[in-house]
Structure to design on (183 residues):
């Protein structure tokens, strides 16, 4: 709608004659007529007065519909926010799934018996005023300082490389049976 038509429409809604409107905006009836016929246009000061008298914004008077622009901007902002929320949800879900997989893998690894932790033991035993240092571990390691070959074989046969605690007791019992002791 042209500016002239808009002025005419708003003037009639207010129930004003061209002369009455002209008095309120400090112009002649002929000037109002020229505006309504789109022969001339009001200057910025006259536009301010017109918008005030007709109780509309200058944008509305000039048919500058910024509402559509604002609605479009708000709509685009809402779309962008929606996409960001979806991305954040996806990242969150992916993180939770990754965490669950890690926990399951850790549990599976720990319960599968694949955790072969090597352990070892050392004990010092005495027999007939002679000291013997005995070392052994789950990696089949065995060493007996100062042991004779026969003693070495006897003690080694007592060692269960899969059960260090049991093996320590066996070695201590060996020395006790021969009237010795272990620390």
């Amino acid at each position: 709608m042209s500016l002239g038509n808009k002025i005419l429409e708003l003037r009639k809604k207010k129930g004003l004659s061209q002369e009455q409107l002209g008095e309120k905006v400090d112009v002649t009836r002929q000037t109002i007529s020229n505006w309504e016929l789109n022969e001339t246009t009001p200057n910025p000061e006259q536009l301010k007065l017109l918008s005030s008298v007709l109780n509309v914004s200058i944008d509305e008077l000039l048919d500058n519909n910024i509402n559509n622009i604002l609605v479009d901007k708000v709509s685009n902002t809402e779309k962008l926010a929606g996409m960001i929320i979806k991305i954040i949800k996806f990242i969150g879900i992916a993180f939770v799934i990754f965490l669950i997989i890690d926990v399951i893998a850790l549990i599976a690894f720990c319960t599968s018996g694949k955790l072969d932790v090597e352990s070892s033991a050392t004990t010092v035993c005495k027999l007939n005023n002679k000291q013997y240092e005995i070392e052994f571990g789950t990696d089949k390691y065995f060493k007996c300082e100062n042991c004779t070959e026969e003693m070495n074989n006897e003690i080694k046969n007592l060692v269960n490389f899969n059960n260090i605690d049991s093996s320590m007791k066996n070695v201590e019992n060996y020395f006790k049976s021969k009237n010795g002791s272990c620390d």
Remarks:
- Strands lie at 120-127, 130-137, 142-145, 181-182.
- The radius of gyration is 50 Å.
